[in-house]
Amino acid sequence: MTIPVHTSREPSPSAQGRALGAAWRAELTRTAASYVDLFAAHGVRGGQVRDWGAAALAATRDWAPGIADEIEGVAAGAGLEPWLLGALNGRTEILAAAAVGGEGECSTSVALPGGGVTPRTVQTWDWHDTLADVMLLRDLEVRPGLRVCTFTEFGIAAKIGVNSAGLGLHFNVLRHASDHPGIGVPVHVVARRILAETSTVEEAVAVARSARLSASSVLTVVTADAASCLELSPAGVAELPAVDGNLLHTNHFLDPVLAPGERTVAAESSTAARLAELRARTSALNAQDRTDRATALLVHGPDGAPLCAHADPALPPHTRWASLATISIDVAARRIDVHEGGPCRVSADTWQSLSAKETL
To answer: Membrane-crossing residues (predicted)?
Structure first.
């Protein structure tokens, strides 16, 4: 299988959304139903999903009206209620509002060799195995002369990606005591606005700090000559620099001010063990070849921390986790490379690539 690709060149956000919605109506309907089921499994049902989805869309409209136009366009094109698309984009906020914990998610490495050498990145995208069919690659022109290529999910504005200005972004979920049910700007919308509007780490930080958040995540922003992990939470945004030329992050706060509010429970999450595995593998994660970097993540739960996660079929569906994709970004080439599946199945021939390289 390959991950579906959608290209957007329509003249407005609304038109781009409508075209995407019409082209992928069945997939969007299925994705929305899958998330409604996931929310219900965590005790969030019916009217509450509708209210929180509408709130996520309203927060998006206040902060990023063009992105809200696109989201509403997707709903119109697919024949779905706008609040459902709000709930998809706000799925992190809805799960945070419900205080959902558990294992997962992703593991990210960015190596900064210096000396003019392009940063070398790789991450897993770990999520529920029941949502393996929600992945989408988008190539969109966000304004004349600026393109964004992003790995995301059907109906979600952006996730991991790169723009034609040479800025890349990786994405991991976090959980913080300050997360709350007063739904704010979705972190996926923050990611999209960074990809659509910024070309430097400093600009990305300013965008992130301007959003009213209700849930937490870490966005690792990378350019040719700089990189930083931006830990986002309702309590504030922390900027973490590289240590010894490496940026490594899993799913717990590292900033000393925000870390005391950590909500991930060590007894149910492998995040600390996965970070330790990344730190032990920095030499391999500095490899020039993307396949070699992905292979450096090849460690399973029984052999250590599950950098390459496989779902346990004995668990209920809403508690199962798997590495559904392995992703690398080349900011010099303005390219995102995606392998469908975990590191244990990657080879030189299993990558899908999208390039946003285009003169600004």
So the answer is: none
Structure tokens at 296: 């450096």
Confidence (pLDDT) at 104: 67
Q: pTM of whole model > 0.90?
A: yes
User: Cβ(44)–Cβ(52) under 8 Å?
Assistant: yes
Question: How far, CA to CA in Å, does 301 sit from each of 277, 322, 339?
Answer: 11, 11, 20
Task: Classify residue 169 by its DSSP letter.
Answer: E
Q: Is there a contact between 322 and 342 (Cβ–Cβ < 8 Å)?
A: yes
Tokens of 203: 């600009």
Give long-range contacts, CB 8 A cutoff, 24+ apart: 193-196: 193/63, 193/64, 193/67, 194/167, 194/169, 194/219, 194/221, 195/142, 195/148, 195/150, 195/158, 195/161, 195/162, 195/163, 195/167, 195/169, 196/67, 196/142, 196/143, 196/146, 196/148, 196/158, 196/163
Domains of the chain: 5-97 (1.10.10), 108-355 (3.60.60.10)
Question: Half-sphere exposure (CA, 13 Å, Cβ side) for 356?
Answer: 36
Q: How far apart are CA 181 and CA 157, in angstroms?
A: 21
Q: Exposed (0-12), middle (13-18) or buried (19+): which is 302, by Cβ within 10 Å?
A: exposed
Whether residue 56 contacts residue 86, with contact meaning beta carbons closer than 8 Å, is answered with yes
Q: In sequence order, what are the residues at sequence separation of 6 or more whose Cβ sits closer than 8 angstroms to the Cβ of residue 267?
A: none
pLDDT in tens, 199-256: 999 999 999 999 999 999 999 999 999 999 999 999 999 999 999 999 999 999 999 9
pLDDT greater than 60 at residue 360: no
The closest of 132, 31, 35, 130 to 74, measured between CA atoms, is: 31
Give me the residues paired with residue 120 across strands.
111
